[in-house]
Amino acid sequence: MRAVLEIGGTHVTAALVDPLRTRVRRRVRRPLDARGDAEHVLGAIVRCAGELQVPAGQVWAVAVPGPFDHEKGIARFEGVGKFDDLYGIDVRAVLLDGVWPRPADVVFLNDAHAFSLGEWRAGASAGHRRCVGITLGTGVGSAFLADGVACRDGPGVPPEGRVDLLRRCGAPLEHSVSRRAILARYGDRDADVRDIAVRAREGERWAGQVLAEALAALGTVLAPCVRDFGASAVVVGGAMALSWDLVGPALRVGLGDTPVRPRPGTLGATAALIGAAEYAMAAGR
What we know:
Structural class: alpha/beta
Shape: globular
CATH superfamily of the largest domain: ATPase, nucleotide binding domain
Strand order of the largest sheet: 3-2-1-4-7
Number of strands: 14
Order of helices and strands: EEEHEEEHEHEEEEEHHHEHEH
CATH class of the largest domain: Alpha Beta
């Protein structure tokens, strides 16, 4: 069994996972305010982990979004609209000191990596030697997996394995594809992305065009990466993927003649938990 944490913008989940059988044996999910101060955020995470009541000496694997120094366990959030008050904090030390029973160690991985690894282990990309995982939420997360190992360089792999570091029309990709970019393009300050999706389904032309343009842009930037990496699967998760009836067709347009058809993840919220457990097991932790 592996003890894992998944930290998101609205919640934190602690779980006990059997990575060999890819089953979540027990989980605790609690709300989390990503805009709260460091004491509130870290306190909520520590309490959630403690509620799981795992034996002492466990190695916890933590899936957390970036910017974050996953090797050292130090938060680097700045100007991203979430967890900004954690900047510079040694989250690993906080968890080692605060979680009870005490962990033996804490390891971190990017949340998109955890999602992709979970889907590779037991979901939509199971059986594929080379696959790309994309998460669509506040921004664009990504992981390029070869036999379950995340690649940070090589043919088709963007810098650090991060699609968000690529550029489109001379600007960062997330100027076109992100929650902030989509809302700015749509122009209704009272709407969120889910509202735009509802309006697109109801036949509002502008809503449909804004979403289609954003996702097609992602596909256009992603296409050469997928081809050069030799991926046989592209799996998409995150909040926007819940509107796959809108996301899927637009993304396929951008991917053009790329032979791989994108597909939504099949594990839902369980993907990142299984992926984090797989990561810890593969690392021998």
